[in-house]
Protein backbone atom coordinates (compact mmCIF):
# COMPACT_ATOMS: atom_id res chain seq x y z
CA UNK A 1 0.00 0.00 0.00
CA UNK A 2 2.91 2.38 0.64
CA UNK A 3 4.21 1.80 -2.89
CA UNK A 4 0.75 2.53 -4.31
CA UNK A 5 0.45 5.74 -2.27
CA UNK A 6 3.83 6.96 -3.50
CA UNK A 7 2.88 6.09 -7.08
CA UNK A 8 -0.37 8.07 -6.78
CA UNK A 9 1.42 11.07 -5.27
CA UNK A 10 3.83 11.15 -8.20
CA UNK A 11 1.35 10.33 -10.95
CA UNK A 12 -1.25 12.92 -9.92
CA UNK A 13 1.21 15.57 -8.69
CA UNK A 14 -0.55 15.99 -5.36
CA UNK A 15 0.13 19.01 -3.17
CA UNK A 16 3.70 19.04 -1.91
CA UNK A 17 2.82 18.51 1.75
CA UNK A 18 1.69 14.91 1.14
CA UNK A 19 5.18 13.83 0.05
CA UNK A 20 7.41 16.90 0.44
CA UNK A 21 10.01 17.87 -2.13
CA UNK A 22 12.14 19.27 0.72
CA UNK A 23 14.66 16.47 1.30
CA UNK A 24 14.66 16.67 5.10
CA UNK A 25 10.87 16.56 5.32
CA UNK A 26 10.72 13.76 2.77
CA UNK A 27 13.31 11.83 4.76
CA UNK A 28 11.05 12.09 7.85
CA UNK A 29 8.11 10.76 5.84
CA UNK A 30 10.22 7.93 4.38
CA UNK A 31 11.64 7.10 7.79
CA UNK A 32 8.19 6.74 9.30
CA UNK A 33 6.83 4.77 6.33
CA UNK A 34 9.71 2.30 6.70
CA UNK A 35 9.47 2.08 10.50
CA UNK A 36 5.73 1.62 10.77
CA UNK A 37 5.56 -1.79 9.06
CA UNK A 38 7.11 -3.71 11.95
CA UNK A 39 6.04 -1.37 14.70
CA UNK A 40 2.69 0.45 14.57
CA UNK A 41 1.20 -1.82 11.91
CA UNK A 42 2.39 -5.08 13.44
CA UNK A 43 1.45 -4.24 17.03
CA UNK A 44 -1.84 -2.54 16.18
CA UNK A 45 -2.93 -5.38 13.93
CA UNK A 46 -1.89 -7.93 16.53
CA UNK A 47 -4.12 -6.29 19.14
CA UNK A 48 -7.03 -6.20 16.68
CA UNK A 49 -6.55 -9.85 15.70
CA UNK A 50 -6.12 -10.98 19.30
CA UNK A 51 -9.02 -9.02 20.75
CA UNK A 52 -11.56 -9.20 17.91
CA UNK A 53 -10.86 -11.86 15.30
CA UNK A 54 -9.45 -14.75 17.34
CA UNK A 55 -12.35 -14.86 19.81
CA UNK A 56 -14.76 -14.57 16.89
CA UNK A 57 -13.13 -17.44 15.00
CA UNK A 58 -12.50 -19.74 17.97
CA UNK A 59 -15.59 -18.91 20.00
CA UNK A 60 -13.33 -18.78 23.05
CA UNK A 61 -12.80 -15.79 25.32
CA UNK A 62 -9.38 -14.20 25.26
CA UNK A 63 -7.07 -15.02 28.18
CA UNK A 64 -6.45 -11.71 30.04
CA UNK A 65 -2.68 -12.28 30.25
CA UNK A 66 -2.50 -12.60 26.46
CA UNK A 67 -4.31 -9.30 25.99
CA UNK A 68 -2.04 -7.61 28.57
CA UNK A 69 1.08 -8.69 26.69
CA UNK A 70 -0.23 -7.55 23.32
CA UNK A 71 -1.39 -4.23 24.80
CA UNK A 72 2.01 -3.62 26.38
CA UNK A 73 3.74 -4.26 23.04
CA UNK A 74 1.50 -1.63 21.45
CA UNK A 75 2.17 0.81 24.29
CA UNK A 76 5.92 0.53 23.71
CA UNK A 77 5.65 1.47 20.02
CA UNK A 78 3.16 4.25 20.76
CA UNK A 79 5.68 5.79 23.15
CA UNK A 80 8.37 5.51 20.47
CA UNK A 81 6.02 7.10 17.93
CA UNK A 82 5.32 10.06 20.20
CA UNK A 83 8.96 10.58 21.17
CA UNK A 84 10.68 9.92 17.86
CA UNK A 85 8.19 10.98 15.22
CA UNK A 86 5.77 13.46 16.75
CA UNK A 87 8.13 15.10 19.21
CA UNK A 88 6.69 18.62 19.61
CA UNK A 89 5.58 19.07 16.01
CA UNK A 90 1.99 19.26 14.76
CA UNK A 91 2.65 16.49 12.21
CA UNK A 92 5.34 13.89 11.57
CA UNK A 93 7.19 15.90 8.90
CA UNK A 94 6.64 19.29 10.52
CA UNK A 95 3.87 21.84 10.27
CA UNK A 96 1.81 20.17 7.51
CA UNK A 97 0.10 16.82 7.16
CA UNK A 98 1.87 14.18 5.05
CA UNK A 99 1.37 10.60 3.91
CA UNK A 100 3.16 9.53 7.08
CA UNK A 101 0.41 11.04 9.25
CA UNK A 102 -2.31 9.51 7.13
CA UNK A 103 -0.76 6.04 7.23
CA UNK A 104 -0.07 6.31 10.96
CA UNK A 105 -3.61 7.24 11.89
CA UNK A 106 -5.13 4.55 9.67
CA UNK A 107 -3.01 1.92 11.43
CA UNK A 108 -3.92 3.25 14.87
CA UNK A 109 -7.62 2.97 14.12
CA UNK A 110 -7.41 -0.84 14.16
CA UNK A 111 -6.83 -1.06 17.93
CA UNK A 112 -9.46 1.66 18.42
CA UNK A 113 -11.94 -0.48 16.49
CA UNK A 114 -11.16 -3.33 18.91
CA UNK A 115 -12.32 -1.13 21.79
CA UNK A 116 -8.83 -0.01 22.85
CA UNK A 117 -8.88 3.78 23.12
CA UNK A 118 -5.17 4.42 22.80
CA UNK A 119 -5.73 8.18 22.58
CA UNK A 120 -7.44 8.46 25.97
CA UNK A 121 -4.32 8.66 28.14
CA UNK A 122 -2.06 10.23 25.53
CA UNK A 123 -2.87 13.92 25.10
CA UNK A 124 -0.10 14.47 22.53
CA UNK A 125 -1.39 11.60 20.42
CA UNK A 126 -5.00 12.75 20.82
CA UNK A 127 -4.13 16.29 19.66
CA UNK A 128 -2.23 14.92 16.68
CA UNK A 129 -5.24 12.75 15.77
CA UNK A 130 -7.51 15.80 15.96
CA UNK A 131 -5.19 17.75 13.64
CA UNK A 132 -5.01 14.88 11.13
CA UNK A 133 -8.80 14.47 11.14
CA UNK A 134 -9.27 18.21 10.60
CA UNK A 135 -6.72 18.27 7.77
CA UNK A 136 -8.46 15.37 6.00
CA UNK A 137 -11.98 16.43 6.94
CA UNK A 138 -13.99 14.83 9.72
CA UNK A 139 -16.69 13.47 7.42
CA UNK A 140 -14.17 11.84 5.06
CA UNK A 141 -12.27 10.44 8.03
CA UNK A 142 -15.44 8.86 9.47
CA UNK A 143 -16.45 7.52 6.08
CA UNK A 144 -13.03 5.95 5.51
CA UNK A 145 -13.05 4.23 8.91
CA UNK A 146 -16.71 3.20 9.06
CA UNK A 147 -16.00 -0.45 8.23
CA UNK A 148 -13.15 -0.99 10.66
CA UNK A 149 -14.87 0.90 13.46
CA UNK A 150 -17.85 -1.46 13.19
CA UNK A 151 -15.72 -4.63 13.17
CA UNK A 152 -16.18 -5.29 16.89
CA UNK A 153 -19.94 -5.60 16.28
CA UNK A 154 -19.50 -8.77 14.22
TrEMBL record:
It catalyses: RX + glutathione = an S-substituted glutathione + a halide anion + H(+). It is an enzyme of class 2 (transferase). One of its GO terms (molecular function) is glutathione transferase activity. Keywords: Cytoplasm, Transferase. SUPFAM superfamilies: GST C-terminal domain-like (SSF47616). The keyword Zinc does not apply. Signal peptide: none annotated. Pfam families: GST_C. InterPro entries: Glutathione-S-Trfase_C-like, Glutathione-S-Trfase_C_sf, GST_C, GST_C_Theta, GST_Theta. GO terms for cellular component: cytoplasm. CDD domains: GST_C_Theta. Coiled coil: none annotated. It is found in: Cytoplasm. GO terms for biological process: glutathione metabolic process. Its EC number is 2.5.1.18. Its main location: cytoplasm. Residues 22-154 form the GST C-terminal domain. Belongs to the GST superfamily. Theta family. Homodimer. PANTHER family: GLUTATHIONE S-TRANSFERASE THETA-1, PTHR43917. This is glutathione transferase. The gene is Gstt1_1.
Amino acid sequence: SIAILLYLVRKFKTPDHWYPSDLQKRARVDEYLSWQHVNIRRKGSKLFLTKVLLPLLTGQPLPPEKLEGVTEELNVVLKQFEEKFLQDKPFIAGSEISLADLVALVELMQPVSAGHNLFEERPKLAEWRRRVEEAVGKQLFQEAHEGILNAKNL
